[in-house]
Amino acid sequence: MSIDRREFVRLAAGAVGGVAFPGCASVAMMRVSPADGILRLPLQEVPQLVRPGGYLRVQPEGNANPVYVVAVEEGEYVALSPICTHLGCTVDIESNRLVCPCHGSTYDRTGEVLRGPAERALTRYPTTVVDDELIIRLEGQG
Ligand code: FES
User: How far apart are CA 50 and CA 136, in angstroms?
Assistant: First the structure.
């Protein structure tokens, strides 16, 4: 039996969507296999991103760190590294901001610093939408 990529993504999201994580228990998570450093998310299969304000934790297969995907405006998405730019802790995503549990740095939904000690924005990965797929380029992701 073979399944196409969209079916795989749908099944993977269903299989792990209810997993809870320390510090971000309510954040849905989706595992996606990158191809050539590119993640493709079929938007009709990701209800968390339908409305502005929604967000999702994406775990690229083979990568150590997840990517936070945020629906900022209608049809506009931001993909962020969760690594705090202060000293490298993993930030938690909350409803309208991202907070570092180590020293309290706070970022807005686009990754810009709201409160230090971090001085630089979270790393943003380039995103585009093509044919109802959100495409994320994981340049520099490790
Ligand atoms: S590592 Fe995030 S605030 Fe220090």
Answer: 17
